[in-house]
Design goal:
The chain has 358 residues and is of the alpha/beta class. The chain contains 15 helices and 13 strands. The termini are far apart. The mean pLDDT is 93.
Length: 358
């Protein structure tokens, strides 16, 4: 058994989600949001190398030494899967491991808004799921793919770095490809996927320009493409996609995005009362005014489209926060901290809520 597995098991036993390893510090785990040392043993550079090298295929280790960064998946059979990120910092090598839940949670488990099913039932277009790191984007996307897998016979290709959730074939046929393991890059995998006759593509990241370009191309060719971005609302997501391109290409991209953008789902995690976390969403769906709004670059009007589209299942982040506040899931302070329009929530705060530097 790799030496690292003992630390990962200790973390799981204590209810942790992430393991942080840094030379010169004891191993730490994220327990209920706070980083806590698992023991008193300070990690040496030699120990760190043993931990990291032991679970890493030789060719990936060479990549890590060259690029100073590496993402990979690690499994303790019968226990759990982890997404590992290797890095270099001031003290030398380091790593963070996050547990990937082995059970894919369903729509009902996650209490996802029913409007997301509309996006799963589309035949084509680009659907972007956005939010900060650790906001549960992968978990939500896994539930959406599971819903499609359970309800229709489609050919689904996922391209991830590393593979997170492993889906069993139900009604659909699902092919998982890992960047670095099965293909050189997201762009290479996407070019290949175009020839593999997929109905649905799931892209773990839409970071590079070429990846975004290919994703738009696939969506315009009649495939349904799911991708993720680190933005926190719909207007910013549309801006981010357009601004990823050089200025002379942006008009053309607006036209392309206007014709193929099928939806944006932004997600944040809030502290639930009394404990745990709950997700809040902003949802933009297809609307007759949307293509023209994107083409003409009037992205500020997207907010009005969402506010007016409530009957179709659209919702702004602030409306979602208000709903969670009304049903007692979250505290007024949490809603205020996450809100775009803070003034709307300020009157609900209790005295002393904002003390402590916020």
């Amino acid at each position: 058994m790799p030496a690292l597995d003992a630390l990962l098991k200790t973390m799981l036993e204590r209810g942790g989600s992430d393991l942080h390893l840094t030379v010169g510090l004891p191993p730490k785990a994220r327990l209920s949001g706070a980083l806590t040392a698992l023991n008193d043993t300070v990690l040496t550079a030699a120990q760190m190398e043993t931990y990291l090298k032991e679970i890493c295929p030789p060719h990936r280790w060479t990549q890590f030494l060259e690029k100073k960064d590496l993402d990979l998946a690690h499994e303790i059979p019968g226990v759990a899967r982890f997404r590992g990120n290797y890095l270099y910092n001031h003290w030398g090598q380091g790593a963070v491991f996050r547990q990937i839940p082995s059970k894919i949670l369903s729509f009902d488990d996650l209490k996802l808004p029913p409007a997301l099913k509309k996006l799963c039932n589309l035949q084509e277009g680009l659907v972007v799921v956005t939010g900060p790191t650790g906001s549960g984007k992968s978990t939500t996307l896994a539930a959406m793919i599971d819903y499609i897998n359970t309800s229709s016979a489609r050919h689904i290709i996922t391209i991830e770095d590393p593979i997170e959730f492993v889906h069993q074939n139900k009604q659909s046929t699902i092919v998982h490809r890992e960047v670095g393991e099965h293909t050189r890059s997201f762009a290479d995998a996407l070019k290949g996927a175009m020839r593999h006759d997929p109905d649905i593509l799931l892209l773990g990241e839409m970071r590079e320009l070429e990846t975004i370009k290919l994703a738009l191309g696939c969506a315009s060719m009649g495939m349904l493409v799911f991708g993720t971005l680190h933005t926190n609302n719909a207007p910013k997501t549309i801006d981010r996609i357009i601004n990823a391109f050089p200025a002379d290409e942006q008009n053309q991209v607006r036209v392309m995005l206007a014709s193929c953008l099928a939806g944006v789902v932004s997600q944040l995690l809030c502290k639930r009362v009394p404990k745990g976390r709950c997700a809040v969403h902003e949802i933009l769906l297809q609307h007759e005014a949307l293509p023209n709004t994107i083409r003409s670059g009037q992205i500020s009007n997207v907010r009005a489209i969402i506010e007016g589209g409530g009957a179709d299942g659209m919702i702004t982040m602030d409306q979602s926060l208000q709903a969670r506040l009304a049903d007692g899931s979250i505290e007024p302070k949490e809603a205020y901290m996450k809100a775009a329009n803070k003034a709307a929530f300020a009157g609900l705060l209790k005295p002393g809520d904002l003390d402590g530097g916020h």
